[in-house]
Amino acid sequence: MAAAIEFTDSLNAQVNKAADQAGGTKGTRLLKQYADFSKLQKDLAALDSKTSTLRYDNEARLTAARKKLKEIDKSVITKLDEQVKTAKTKYQPLFDSYSSVSKQATAAKKLKDKALYSLLKTQADGLKVASTLARQDIRNKESALQAAKKEKTRKSEEIRKILDEVDPHKTKIKSEKSAISSSNKLISTEWSNFKAAVKKGDADRSSDTLARLLTLSAQVQKNKQSIFNLEEKIAASILKAEKKLP
Question: How large is the greatest C-alpha to C-alpha distance in the chain, in angstroms?
């Protein structure tokens, strides 16, 4: 985002020469403006560095948080799901036996074989009780699984809502960067004008361009500070989400 600003020894010498030639208040003003602009550029570079460090940290933490979000209660749900499958497999022979004996009892009744029917009916009744208990066990395990899935959804939505706070900040950052880009184009033009003016020893024009450069750079500083503040807000949102993640 930075405009190409370089404070070379040659340029420094030209500024000093122009200031000496102008002398008095003009020379003093030119030197002060140049020093202020140089310091402002250093401040901007420091702010850029600080912002970049925070931004990269935020992106890494955001990626990690979204990855963990997908893993919420995964092991719990996997365990409960396996319990349901195991129970169904375990009880299937019982269900098959109950179904088979019930059919045999029905057939014996149609054949009016009372002794066989009585025997099969007794077996079927016993298997019915066991099957009822088995089905209840499966339902209990399925209920536990559904409850765990529901809790996972609740947690995920809560954390996702926090992470969604990041998006408006990123949108504002894009807007600030766009403003900086526009300002930098003007700064680049003014910097070229300044170098041309100071090379000719034109203190008045050099001072005028520096005044505009200072104004434009101050606006860029404001925009960049806003970006840093937004990155801090992003960091705060990520931290809030991290505290709720396993």
Answer: 130
Closest CA to 43 of 236, 220, 240: 220
DSSP state of 4: -
Question: How many C-beta atoms lie closer than 10 Å to residue 159's C-beta?
Answer: 21
Position of tokens 């860029």? 220
pTM over 0.85? The answer is no
30 close to 210: Cβ distance less than 8 angstroms: yes
Question: Are the C-beta atoms of 231 and 61 separated by less than 8 Å?
Answer: no
Tokens of 45: 């570079």
- pLDDT tens string 9-48: 999 999 999 999 999 999 999 999 999 999 999 999 999 9
Q: What is the pLDDT of residues 219-242, one digit of tens each?
A: 999 999 999 999 999 999 999 999
The dihedral region occupied by 201, where left means phi > 0, alpha psi between -120 and 50, and beta the remainder, is left
CA 194 – CA 41 distance, rounded (Å): 15
Backbone angles phi, psi at 6, to 5 degrees: -130, 130
